[in-house]
Each structure stands twice: as C-alpha cells, then as structure tokens.
Amino acid sequence: MSQGNPLSTPAPDWHARAANLACDGRMLIDGKRLEAADGDTFRCESPIDARLLCLAARGRKADIDSAVRSGRVAFEQGRWSRKPPAVRKKILQRWSELILAHKEELALLETLDMGKPIRESLSVDVPSAARCIQWFAEAADKQYGEIAPTGPQALALITAEPVGVVGAIVPWNYPLIMAAWKLGPALALGNSVVLKPSEKSPLTALRLAELAVQAGLPEGVLNVVPGYGQEAGEALAMHPDVDVLAFTGSTRVGKQMLIYAGQSNLKRVYNELGGKSAFMIFPEVGDLGRAARTVAGSIFYNQGESCNAPSRVLVHESLAEELVQRVVREAARYSPGDPLAPDTSMGAMVDAAQTQTVLNYIASGLQEGARCLHGGRQVRIETGGFFIEPTVFDGVTPLMRIAREEIFGPVLSILTFSSEQEAIAIANDSPYGLQASVWSDNINQAHRVAQALKVGTVHVNQYDEDDITVPFGGTKQSGNGRDKSLHALSKYTNLKTTWVRIDSA
After folding, report:
1. Which partner from 149, 230, 291, 381 sits 20 to 30 angstroms from 219, CA to CA?
2. Is residue 23 flagged as an active site residue?
3. pTM higher than 0.90, yes or no?
4. Is-contact 391 376, C-beta < 8 A?
5. What does the alpha-carbon distance between residue 312 and residue 403 come to, in Å, rounded to a whole number?
6. 150-191 per-position pLDDT tens digit
7. Of 54, 120, 307, 330, which is the active-site residue?
8. In the 8-state DSSP scheme, what is residue 220?
C-alpha cells in the first residue's frame, strides 16, 4: 500500500488559520500603522459568514491630508524620486519576493475580506500582484528620453518625469491585483502614492504596503488610508496637492471623479470603469462546447464580480438552442460553496448590499419577460454569508435592463441574432466599451467583426486570456485609463522639453 510522498506538504487547514488570524485595520502613513485622526473605525466583516475580521480605521479628510503631506515631503526630499532607477528596481523586486513569501497569509486575507474561493486567491490574485510589481520593477531602469529633430542650432531634450503624488482608488472585487496595477508603474517611476482601498475589502492593501516598507520602500512613499468613498475617497480626489488620480470602479463614481478634478486643481484623472461585454458566437464557430465552457467559466468566475465579465452572449439563432443547453449544464458546475474549501469554484458576494442589487436585477429580468433557466436564488443563507446561484437567462432582448446595465454578479443573458451586421449592432449598442469576444473559425469574419467593435480588447476564440504585457482598459463609458503593459507608465509621468540653443562658432 502506497504511503504517498513523504516530502509533500499537507494542505492548510484554512478554517483553523482563519480562526487564529489577527487582522490589522489601521492605516499606514509615513511608514507607520496609525488609528484615524479622530479615532473612528468601521466594521470589516467577512461575506462568508458575517464574522468580524477587525475594526478598520475610518479615514477622513484629516487622514488624507496627512497621507498626501507625507507623500509630498517624501517626493520633494527625493527619498524615492531621486534614487537611481536601478535602486528602485531592486527594492520593488524585494517587495515582489515578499508578496510571494507571504502568499498564504495574503490569500487568506483576500478570501475572508471579499469572499472569493481560496484556491483563486492562491493561484491567481497573489501571484498576479507579485508578477505585476516584479514586471514594472524590471521596467524602472529601461525608460529612455528623446531628442527632437530640431536642426543643428538647437538641442531639444524630451524627458518623462514622475508627476509627484498619485492618488489611487481601487475597488473591492480584486483588491490585491487592482492595487498592484496602480502601484507597480507609479512607484517604478519614482512617484509617491496615496492608496484608498474599498471599505469593503481593505485588508490586503494595508498588508501589501507594510511589506513594501519591509522591502525598503522609504517612509512616506506609499500611504494607505481605508475609509468610505464619500469621505476618504472624495477627500483624495479633491485634494489640491494630488497630481494624478487613478481610479477603478463604477462608471457613476468615475464621472464624479472628473467633477472633483475640475473643482480642485485639474489633476489628470484616469478612469477604468464598468463593462457589459458581448460574447459573440457565429455559425462558423469551431467548437461550440468550448465556447460554452469558456463563457460559463468567465461569467461565473469571481462570482461575476468582474468589470470585464462577458455578461451578454450573442449567439446566432441557428446555434441558440444547443448553446443554451450546454451553458445550463456548465452553470451547474459552479454552485456556490465554502470559499475556504480547496475545491470550491464559486464563493460569496462581497456583502449584503451587492447581493440585493443582483437579486433585484434577477427580478427585473423576470418582470421584463426573460426566462430564467438556471439559478436565480440566494443560497447558503444559514451560513450568515451572501451567496447567489449562477443564473442563466434566455429570451433576452437588447432593451431589457439585464442586457444593458452592469449587474456585477453571476447573471448571464443570452440574446440571438440572424446576421453578422445585427450582431455587431447589438454589441456596440451599449454605453460601455470594455471587452468583447468573437467566436468564429472564419479568419476574415473574426478580423472584420473585431475591427467593427468599439471596445478596448477583443478576444478571438477565447476569453480573458491575460498577460501583464497587454494593456487593460476600455472606451466610451468604460473609461480612458490603461493598466498593465508599458502603456501604463505614461499615466504617471509629465513630459518636459528642455530646449538648448547652440550658437554658431
């Protein structure tokens, strides 16, 4: 009888670790963990079972002022901004290594704080955050200036300088990854950053910053202030000494960020906002089964709490019946379970408010005449947590709310089309323009449709395959920001021209 591998590591007992976990909800300013200036807190509760994780510092204007002041002093003193790029690179690389060294701690915090399965936090969120920091660290000493072709009587140097203090506001659905997408490029270039995580999931951002200080990031370069959007978020967006605002969140709040910038110092605002991505399946699709598996895996991943989730399936009418049957079978594989169990594929919604929002949309779909073929209910209520079944609607028309508005939950709408032109028209008839997917083995059709779609990313015969080298962002009311890739760096620099006159001998 086999005794197994004696060197194998036993699987962690995540429930035992969760029971013994000590969470620190204090803000981090000037390299120190601090209470809010007025001593106020808010309850940080787990959506898995409503357990109290900690009392987090409730940052307000006074705390944001302190954090921005700390960042400004650090920047002007050159603690980070005037370090050689190679030195910044080494410190950021150490930070990336520390993130991986604390992988299990960060994964557990992420899962407890926002409800996603522990296996996803371990295999995706923590490694992706570390990879992002490491990648931008490598880019730190590989940025070059330019010389303009002005002619022999002048030397025009074009340099990209760090902007100063960056305000970063990130959402609750991917707390670690979204933070890393802002911090990596901003810090690699020498800026200071004030990060405001969502009040629904602040814990990994705070621990992330603590690890940055441990890696050697100078005090004041990265400050993290948890708190509510209308308090800490508004104060950061309105602050006259913040040079750039990088925001990821809803379109409604993104519009408000532009107003705040106009009311304060005209700071640049980069918005990465919502989406209503179309997943388009044409008769020329090569593998309908793979398409069904892909759309189910993409819409139900992270409980549907993804801005780029393909929440609209547009399928040719000749394939609709078979596609619906396949998607419903796939949806049954994503029943919500215990997020701390290693085999759970779908976890908890982030809180009661988001749960009710999703349930309201499901009710709206039924009222407008769509057919709910699977799911549609809140489940596991006895746990005290917030879980919704994967939900599939067909009979959906383009004007229904579930086909037009971002739900941010595990709800899929299936619509039909009869021609390529109709499919393109339905896909583009949306205020959003984040992503889309085209499924066809006709290469001409795939390129033709991709060119016609008004979105930031078009996936062809796949969905959401990803790499740090590829920019992420959208058009229209999905925003103007680009995270990831070298394109993200330009958001955090100012171009300067130095014109030198050269006199004739």
Report:
1. 230
2. no
3. yes
4. yes
5. 6
6. 988 999 999 999 999 999 999 999 999 999 999 999 999 999
7. 307
8. T
